[in-house]
Amino acid sequence: MEVSGMSLNAKNLENLHTQMFAEACYSSLTARSRYQGIYTGLLSCRARSCSNSGSTMVKKLLVDVDCGVDDAQAIMLALAAPDVEVLGITCVHGNTTVENVCKNTLRVLKACQRLEIPVFRGASKPILGKTLSAGHFHGHDGLGDAPDPDAPSLEMVQKEGAVAAMIRIVSEHAGEVSLVATAPLTNLALATRMDPTFPQKLKGLYIMGGNTDSRGNTTMCAEFNFAADPEAAYIVLKDFQCPTYIACWEFTCRSKLPWEFCDAWLAQDSDKARFMKRIFQHSIEASSSERSQKEMVDGMGFVSCDSYAMAAAVDDSFVTECERVAVSVELTGSYTRGMMVLDTLDMMKKEHKAFVMKKVDLEKFKALMMAALK
Ligand SMILES: [Ca+2]
Questions:
Q1: Domain Inosine/uridine-preferring nucleoside hydrolase spans what residues (predicted)?
Q2: How many Å lie between the centroid of ligand 1 and the Cα of residue 228?
Q3: Model pTM greater than 0.85?
């Protein structure tokens, strides 16, 4: 993996971690340089999993979604990935209403015959500001307005609320759970306000959201998930000290797949592929609109935004290059509210740095995506 221009071969990095892990069991390491922080972050994860023998092989995920079409794609990717256990899916406002998000999540789980995974209802509005929706792209119901008369009943949504469930599940598996957030970060911000120890119990946090080059897809300078709740994004990027990977808007565009891949992906002979084809049609058509073309960075193509954050969570070798930098969110700018801020000058003097994803293994991504609809 390459970090901030420092090239690290993935195998060498793994060997280095193994060697350092033995030392870490006896002594705590202090980050002495900008780069050493990556080792200590990963080691602390391993040290925690050390006390949970037998559970280190399976990746435990908690997924927070505003289930539009790319959330559906990300969920299906996780469910098909080997050695991944989805402990629960928490729902939040975003692409559509939280009620639709719950329903959509159940529809996705039904399509994958995985309705045993618990679904929790979360925040219906952002902490402050107006509620957005992305109906122009995902359809008003979030899944392309494709009729589904056999959709599971909302009675299948758990009685326990999403924020309480997040805190409980992460406490029950302290140090083992990676949280994948592919939506406005309202539930996560509320969780850390309800239980300040919540972030430190996470193994890692994987976010789809924000931007690196001030390119907006919702406002001039803001990406949808951060624009839909800037205060929540601010709280999460400030309070969550666990290893944090961010798949930003421009990165997902630059990591796009050709539409030919999408055609072959949807043409697979399976119920899951037929389901995806139905719910994705609206977005495929919307992708060619003048508005969508302006939003895109570096040309057109198939961008399954949320799937990049999910792929990073399910496969440690997926991310091949990151920028390690402190990040925050602009809250007050009249043009820039919701824009992610990268402190490349280190002026915030923030100890916690995020891993902003730069490059990924696209062949692995294609394989994970293909498997999702098999
Ligand atoms: Ca989403």
A1: 62-366
A2: 11
A3: yes
Cβ partners under 8 Å of residue 294, min gap 6: none
Q: Is the dihedral of CA 111, 273, 206, 187 positive or negative?
A: negative
Per-residue pLDDT band for 55 (boundaries 50, 70, 90) equals: very low
d(CA 147, CA 4): 47
pLDDT of residue 134: 87
Instruction: Give the residue-averaged pLDDT of 214-236.
Output: 97
Residue 334 pLDDT > 80: yes
pLDDT digit string (tens) for 20-42?
333 333 233 333 333 333 333 33
Distances (CA, A) of 261 to 25, 71, 271: 45, 19, 18
**Ligand 1: centre distance to CA 120 (Å):** 16
- Which of 234, 198, 226 has the alpha carbon at shortest distance from 327? 234
Centroid of ligand 1 to alpha carbon of 150 (angstroms):
23
In CATH terms, 58-372 corresponds, of 3.40.50.2000, 3.30.9.10, 3.40.1190.10, 3.90.245.10, to 3.90.245.10
Give me ligand 1 centre to Cα 304, in Å. Answer: 10
Pick from 4, 36, 8: nearest CA to 20: 36
Question: Which residues lie below 8 Å from residue 73, measured CB to CB, with a gap of 6+?
Answer: 276, 304, 306, 307, 369, 372
Catalogue the active-site residues. 66
Q: Residue 128, Cβ neighbours under 10 Å: how many?
A: 10
Computed on alpha carbons and rounded to an integer, the radius of gyration of the chain in Å comes to 19
Integer angstrom CA distances of residue 89 from 118, 182, 242, 283: 6, 11, 20, 23
Q: Where are the domains of the chain?
A: 58-372
